[in-house]
Prior knowledge:
alpha/beta, Glutaredoxin, five-stranded mixed β-sheet, two-stranded antiparallel ribbon, globular
Amino acid sequence: MYFYPAASTPGCTKQACDFRDSLAELNDAGLDVIGISPDKPAKLVKFRDTESLNFPLLSDPDRATLAAWGAFGEKTMYGKKVQGVIRSTFLVDENGKIEVAQYNVRATGHVAKLRRDLSV
Length: 120
């Protein structure tokens, strides 16, 4: 499961397309992908369709899920402290236990690093 700031922005698009392009290998390793952002469902449908994304995108407009997972809060952006989505990735086992929690991940190269770390 990964949390991202906004659909159809350059970094989030790159990250989503990297997950899309790696999905078969991730699935073969027993991993499913779910993306969560504060975007409204209509924007997510457009993003999914435009980028041919092949995994679920969930909407969290009130940011309750983001906050519960520690993926929303204070972060530094362009040298300023702001409240926002903290780009994060979690590996959750079949019992709901968090196996890996990664915060402040980079949009570009993150999926490749994740695959290396997991030997996928």
